[in-house]
Amino acid sequence: MRISRIDGRYRLVSGDTAADIAEASGGAFAPDGFDVYERWAELAAWAPSVPASAYRPFDPARLDAPVALPRQVFAIGLNYRDHAAEANLAEPEEPLVFTKFPTCVTGPVAAIDLPSDHVDWEVELVVVIGARAHRVAAADAWAHVAGLTVGQDLSERVVQLAGPAPQFGFGKSFPGFGPIGPAVVTPDELGDPANLAIECALGDEVLQKGTTADLIFPVPELIARLSAVCPLLPGDLVFTGTPAGVGGSRKPPRFLPRGATLVSRIEGIGELRNALR
Q1: Any domain includes 252
Q2: Which residues of 187-197 are buried (b: 16+ CB within 10 A; e: fewer)?
């Protein structure tokens, strides 16, 4: 199952067509309500009954973030082996957790206003929670996942690193610094969700290229570690980390230019295309 938001309304997606969930359900689900994730198991059981006639072509330029208002947005630092290596840091023994403010979340084709000349890129696999998770064992973690999507953890490095201690959440939460999409895809659609090709490009130039199999703490382990401390709620996002190739680790450092398009892709899920201005 694939879920997107188009013109602010949640839709089931099949190829280049989509079915409006509120219309197809006769109003059982709200068109723009959070009950899509609060009632994820119910939605997943109902979705196969939607007839082909309910699906209509849609314009990809009208895609919104597939989660409208996440209550919590978690992120994990230094979670790919090759990224730890490029930073000349040891692989962490515990997940390095920070948060992004929910107001930074935007859609897969939204334009992003760069607040400075020091904005870095970080393509990431993003987990969307589909059932409340508290003190969940790793072996049971996938049962609490609605699906996976593509994300960018954009970072203003001067703000992030200013002060006597880094302020990760602050430097990574400017408006537009959390684009996600184009859809939330259930794990059964992805073959092996633990081994997906992931890449980031600036126009046609590939900046990052890796696989989610390189995660130090894979998705089930992250859910177990996070939920041991605080409950994860339906619709919450977990940015799982980025592979090697970020601009801040290059010599000399390199950052995003205005006027280009940042493209972020994950195998089986799709891509973000965000114009930078």
Answers
A1: yes
A2: beebeebbebe
